[in-house]
């Protein structure tokens, strides 16, 4: 743990010469980077059925399917992310939160879950669908409520990086670097849970990143983003990573 803290502080200190972060901001960033929650976030990603228009796909997901998902037992939060770009590699990413694994597993073989599976066939290309179970880390929280653009990345590591090392670097080193970029108001990482790696299986993605920002041009051109890109290219497999802008829709439960 000492080496992790040292690396995080070193990277933030280097950025502090550019962004002039306060000591309290550094402390908060480090605390959020190192601490996760017991809550489970299930992330599903998929493409629409080829015979449906984008508009019909979104309408069905937003209305009819949302009504079915609301009935899940123990559901804490439900967010739909509708892709805004055809090049994203996905048409939608669904995020659902449960208090713990027991709450989520309580839905196995229930009528509510079976109803969801039946309705998915009405608008989702089943061959494109995948799901990962994650632990969420809020690296940077917005100080106020703002209307931002949202970008999501379905992330895969380079194969020479083992899973444990990747997750440590991604959260504890890359996390604070991204959080220091100007115009990023909120930044959340969701890491695929470690259990799948212990069974020698490879998940569809190693992590999901979500960031909210105001202006993309200022984001890309900042000196802080250059430091982010340098580390990303050392740990991420961009050929197997999917990135796209989304419209975030919070479903009322």
UniProtKB/TrEMBL annotation:
Molecular function in Gene Ontology: oxidoreductase activity
Gene3D superfamilies, per the entry: 3.30.70.100
Annotated InterPro entries: Dimeric_a/b-barrel (IPR011008), EthD_dom (IPR009799)
Location of the EthD domain: 50-126, 162-226
Pfam families on file: EthD (PF07110)
Protein name as it appears in the record: EthD domain-containing protein
Species name: marine metagenome
